[in-house]
Amino acid sequence: MVETETGSSDDVNELPFAAPCRQLRPLAPLGWLARGWRDMRAAPTASLSYGIFMAAASMLLSGFAYVYGSYWLLFALLSGFVFVAPVLCLGLYAISAQLERGHPPSLLRSLREAGRRRLSNELVFALVLLVIFLVWARAGSMVHVFFPVEANPDWRELVAYLGIGSAVGSIFAVITFAASAFSLPMIMHRNVDAVTAVVTSINAVLRNKAAMAVWIMLIVLAIAVGFASFFVGLAVTLPLIGHATWHGYLETIDASVFPRHQKGVAATPRPRTAGPT
Fold first, then answer.
1. Does 247 map to a domain?
2. 194 occurs within a structural domain
3. Which residues face 253 on adjacent strands?
4. Is residue 3 part of a domain?
5. Whole-angstrom distance, CA of residue 194 vs CA of residue 118
6. Stated pTM of the model
7. CA 111 to CA 77: how far, in whole Å?
8. Which domain holds residue 35?
């Protein structure tokens, strides 16, 4: 069914199982970063508030692991960061949406948009990430069977062990990335269920492998800068990635056939000069 002017559909049963995606240029993510930086400059207080909170939380958890001398706990916390980061960026999507519509960016409104109004679908998505994380943790514990038992293991044995562990972790990281690359922005933007959003995200990632590979490298670089600066850099890099993700979603996914939310910042269309509504 063709969408109406407000982007709604008369019959939910006629909606597609997933939203179509556009074909991206390999270097398209660089443009997302540029637009994300523009949003940060337009709303520095709201954006950096999220960044400072996430940086402080990372410092606190890492300090807890260090005090109790559990390096494995620290490693698990840092590795699990990839699973929770997409959920933490929901408020940043709301800030970008406010800026696009000419609204003054409000931290309180972004928290309300990210919380109560999208809570049910966000909880389903968080449950999906939790299941992936638990399976990853179980797989990680099984990798220990490859750890050399000798007191002074050969370097080749250590390389093999680290290689297997990295390969297993990479598989789960890619699965998480594909499921969350565009799903949460879609939940924020349109009235869709979590399954539709996840399927849409996976489809878009698989159809734009080159651009997504560049995007993954940029995300890893941004997080690496944050970790190398003892988490201080996360106060800037995480909001930048969050805002850029919103613009990447708008450029990649055509969700116009799905209905709008009845309330919230995304209930009104974006100005036509801003691109897809």
1. yes
2. yes
3. 21
4. no
5. 10
6. 0.83
7. 24
8. 21-274
